[in-house]
Amino acid sequence: MTQPTSSSPLHPPQDGPKPLDPKLAKRKLTYRTARFLAWERLARLSPWLARRNNFPLGALTLEEASGALLEQREPIDVAAALGPVPEDLARILRRIGVDPTLRATARILALRAEDAVLMGHTGAVHQAGRMIAPPSLKNWPKSAKPAGLKTLRPEPGRLSIALATAPAGAKHFFHGFMDRFCPLILMLERLFPEAGLNPGDADVWVNSRRAPFHDAFHRFAEARWPGLRFRHLEKDERLAAPEILMPLLEQDPVPRSWAPAPFYAVMSDFAEAVAGPPLARPGRRDRKIFIDRSDAAKRVLLNADEISALLARRGYEVLTPGRMPYAAQVRAFSEASHIVATHGAALMNLIAAPAHARVLEMFVAETWADDFPNATASYILLCRARGLDHRAWTCAEAADRRFSHRIDPDALEAQLDALEA
User: Fold this and answer.
1) Which residues of the chain fall short of a pLDDT of 50?
2) Cβ distance 89 to 343 under 8 Å?
3) Distances (CA, A) of 412 to 12, 139, 295, 341, 361
4) Which residues pair with 67 in a beta bridge?
5) Contacts of residue 325, Cβ cutoff 8 Å, sequence gap at least 6
6) Alpha helix (H) ranges present in 115-177?
7) I want to staple 346 with a disulfide (CB 3.0 to 4.6 A). Which of 19, 204, 241, 321 is the partner?
8) What is the pLDDT of residue 144?
């Protein structure tokens, strides 16, 4: 159990007050940030209004918060993890911000915050009227009624773990795994044994509004760590506890790009449990699938009919995971020999892909910046960690600021020929 120094890359030294909303620090003014600014000004003018609406009067870093910090550091040789890097992949990695030759570090953290409150309407943990960051209060909720939140108390002798988020983002697939389940798994697998804590003595507090993949993971976790319980926090409730544990994972220098080995091992077991029969079972393992994003807000394929027809001729199934039951998604990936997809959250299902699977991940370049915004190296490194054959391709330039794009059929044919060779 160690205390991080004030020069931690998670919280670099800052001059002046710390903004509650990171979007403000990036000078991004949206409706939500403008509303947040107005609320922050009102809260500072009237502490009574801040208390009534459970609005924090500022932010605390982990170093400033009252409580012990459990911590482990794990280095990773990214070059060794990636292995040989073709030039197109190296170019994509550099645009994302990953140097294929760098050495990185993960900090597995758990703050034991004293006399803290977990807010159901934002997922933020408050201490003495100030919010502990991270997690940050990214958006003041649109529909929550923060005044007069019902106060809950933990059962005597039970540890309380905060895993809630703002209700608006509670159902996001990628962030659910990488920002919540990953730190929780690492905390239970690594930090609890070191601190002499028993997962079976803990209650994990999560949003009442959740997606089916949350319920699947909750059932799996309760079976894996007997005694562990998931408790639901409504947006008009708050949990006040003498101690709240906050699991965190800092990946330096690139967040959400890779995770220590226990995460991949546990997630493989989870995928096996969801898919039904063991993933090592004999049977169909030759499905060729293409991941359709027609139901997504970003990176939508504009010539989808043309590309779908091309893929159908080559024996590919066109799947839209957002419209499929979660178990069906996992089963499809577990039976796939070839997976073609534009970079997106559905590729978290690669944790279920068999060892012989070949993956073509397509990236959309931002025309005006020659960059890949909102992209991470998560799936590249996930495939490397699991030994999958991963190929990256810059498939198109964005047609608009939502990264809608068209794929050249002839160029795709060439990529598929290489993938299937």
Assistant:
1) 1-27, 135-139, 143, 368-370
2) no
3) 44, 39, 22, 12, 12
4) 113
5) 212
6) 173-175
7) 321
8) 53
Cα–Cα distance for residue pair 301/292, rounded to 1 Å: 8
The predicted structure's pLDDT at residue 170: 56
Distance CA 324, CA 302 (A): 22
Question: What torsion do the CA atoms of 200, 206, 210, 215 make, to the nearest 10 degrees?
Answer: 0
pLDDT tens for residues 227-237? 999 999 988 89
Tell me if the bond preceding 253 is cis, omega within 30° of 0.
yes
> 144, 234 in Cβ contact below 8 A?
no
H or E segment at 357? Answer: none
How many whole angstroms from its chain centre is CA 65?
24
Rounded to whole angstroms, what are the CA distances from 414 to 148, 243, 389, 417? 61, 57, 17, 5
Among residues 386, 395, 417, 384, which one has the least CA distance to residue 85? 384
Q: 156 by DSSP, 3-state: which?
A: coil
CB 333 within 8 A of CB 339: yes
Angle between helices 212-224 and 261-275 (to 10 degrees): 110
Which CA distances in Å does 381 have to 70, 172, 367, 387? 26, 20, 26, 10
Which of 322, 304, 300 lies closest to 312 in space, CA to CA?
A: 304
CB 69 within 8 A of CB 112: yes
Residues 6+ positions from 408 with CB-CB distance below 8 Å: 396
Write the DSSP symbol of residue 257: S
Instruction: Let me know: does 182 contact 175? Beta carbons within 8 Å.
Output: no
Look-up: residue for tokens 């002046």? 16
Residue 3 contacts residue 69 (beta carbons within 8 Å): yes
Nearest Cα neighbor of 51 from 128, 165, 122, 121 is: 128
Q: Alpha helices, DSSP H only, in 292-408? A: 304-313, 326-334, 378-386
* Interatomic CA distance for residues 52 and 149, integer angstroms: 9
Closest CA to 339 of 357, 315, 352, 355: 357
pLDDT at 14: 38
